[in-house]
Amino acid sequence: MQDLVNVSYDTLIPNNVDLSSDRRVLKALERWHPGYLKWWNDLGPEGFQDSLVYLRTAVSVDPKGWTKFDYVRMPEYRWGILLAPEVEDRRVPCGEHCGEPAWQEVPGEYRAMLRRLIVIQGDTEPASVEQQRHLGKTAPSLYDMRNLFQVNVEEGRHLWAMVYILHKYFGADGREEAEELLRRQSGSAEAPRMLGAFNEETPDWLSFFMFTCFTDRDGKMQLESLAQSGFDPLSRTCRFMLTEEAHHMFVGETGVGRTIQRTCEAMNQAGIEDPYDIEAVRALGVIDLPTIQKKLNLHYSLSLDLFGSEVSTNAANAFNAGIKGRFRESRIDDDHQLAEATYPVVQLVDGAIGLVDMPALSAINMRLRDDYTRDTSGGVRRWNTLIAKHGVPFEMRLPHDGFHRQIGVFAGANVTPAGELVSAEEWQARRQEWLPSAADGDFIVSLMQPEWRPGKFASWIAPPKVGIDNKPGDFEYVKLEMA
Ligand code: BYC
Question: Three-state SS for 356?
Fold first, then answer.
């Protein structure tokens, strides 16, 4: 019997699921592996595949010490299959089966629903790697380059996590779905990725930081919901993915924070007090705060779309079946069935935005989105503290939930970031006040000059407070020459 906490690294596919005694699944995964490597080489980080990168690899699922740092070439990264330890006597936490023993096999009646959720989750992981593949070339430091690659290899591992579940529990159609996950491509006209935000471009590093801050946080919320699943293998795999996800959001939040910090420092040094004096601020080689706010507006609104419609039968069915719970379901004090409960849902009524009480069961997506907004606002508060510390009169704000939406109640509505409904003409006329224009994009791209000397940072971003794995400031996180 294999050690189910520490990971076995003596097989081609490191794992803590005793793969060596599961010949069928091992074979299926070994057949999938070359296609995965081809995908990584073709659509993963462009260049740098021969560089030695200081990466963490999971060696255990013990939260106290699960990781090991070392120099690794990315194609040789040990992508493994790791499930959090089984919780003894775990029960279905919600819905009509609430309190029954959690399922160790796929319940037949929910097979299609489960497969769809797993495929959607799986689809986002390689999509983000594809979106970020050009960024290495313009990395503002070796520290940031390492963080990018760390995020990328772990998103690759999250794909493995979903593919394992598909192969192990979904037979021939699971294998087919696993192939499809390598076939679809972010931004492709013929076979795009499944969710909107994963077909957008990530043209610069500020977009990357916003993406890891806002879109990875949607990932966190969705994984938290799937970690509540009554289908235990899915719950366990998502629980471990969440351990890795925390670093991705750290990269995003501190990346935006360091960008803001550098802007404020440069303004202070030059004696510029007006944050809206955009030309003067840009002339300092930093990104002005109003443009950072526009990027925030874009990425936050794209990420809200990932929660689906506020009122959703799909979400109600998944909750009722016990295959997707609410955020921290097991800590909520109610009947976990939502038989009578209501939840306030945003609606457009008679040309105005209002809240209407709806059956809570149908408002599961709305509730998760509200939890997300709360979770997100902490980061924005920290950025504002930083700005205030520099004495710059500016505050970052999350835009209204109705701003710039494609999915749900607000799809197609003309809502300003402040939450006012305006005419389509007015919205279009003011669009460039709220969302990055082509010229804003060009300016940001013009700043994306690589800085690859150890310990040095590009003009527009401040160094981090501490290094990764407590390494000193001039640590060589990526060895660019072939070793
Ligand atoms: N784009 O009832 P509805 C991450 C479709 S991120 C396109 O409103 P439902 C990560 C929907 O599929 C987390 N289509 O929504 C982050 C449905 O179509 P069908 C990824 C959309 O089903 C960074 C129809 O509209 N994980 O991990 O309740 C880096 C009506 O659906 C969209 C998950 O999302 C959209 N935005 O909820 C790396 C978890 N929204 O089936 C990774 C799994 C809706 O009628 N997925 N539609 O043809 C789910 O839980 C749900 O499917 C959704 C949608 C939350 C996505």
Answer: strand
Q: Is the CB of 366 under 6 A from ligand 1?
A: no
Output the CA–CA distances (angstroms, integers) from residue 75 to 51, 100, 160, 217, 306, in the order listed: 10, 43, 14, 27, 30
3-state DSSP helix/strand/coil % of the chain, to nearest 5:
55, 10, 40
- Is there an atom of ligand 1 within 6 Å of 305 CB? yes
Spatial strand order of the sheet with 67-73 comes to: 67-73, 52-58, 478-479
Contacts of 307 (CB under 8 A, 6+ apart): 218, 221, 365, 366, 368, 369, 372, 407, 408
Rg of the chain (C-alpha set) = 23
Q: Is 0.90 topped by the overall pTM?
A: yes
**Nearest CA, atom 50, ligand 1:** 117
What is the C-alpha separation between 438 and 293, in angstroms, rounded? Answer: 15
Please tell me if the CB atom of residue 224 comes closer than 6 angstroms to any atom of ligand 1: no
Give backbone dihedrals phi and psi of 53, rounded to 5 degrees, phi first: -115, 135
Q: Specify the ligand 1 atom closest to the Cα of 408.
A: 8
Q: Is the CB of 229 under 6 A from ligand 1?
A: no
Query: Do 430 and 416 contact (CB within 8 A), yes or no?
Result: yes
CB neighbours of 224 closer than 8 A, spacing ≥ 6? 238, 242, 327, 328
Cα separation, 326 vs 227, whole angstroms: 10
Flag whether pLDDT at 1 surpasses 60: no
Task: Give the separation between CA 58 and CA 8, rounded to whole angstroms.
Answer: 11
Would you give the DSSP letter of residue 212? I
Per-residue pLDDT reduced to its tens digit, 130-185: 999 999 999 999 999 999 999 999 999 999 999 999 999 999 999 999 999 999 99
User: Which ligand 1 atom sits closest to the C-alpha of 211?
Assistant: 23
* Residue 424 scores a pLDDT above 80: yes
pLDDT at 482 over 70: no
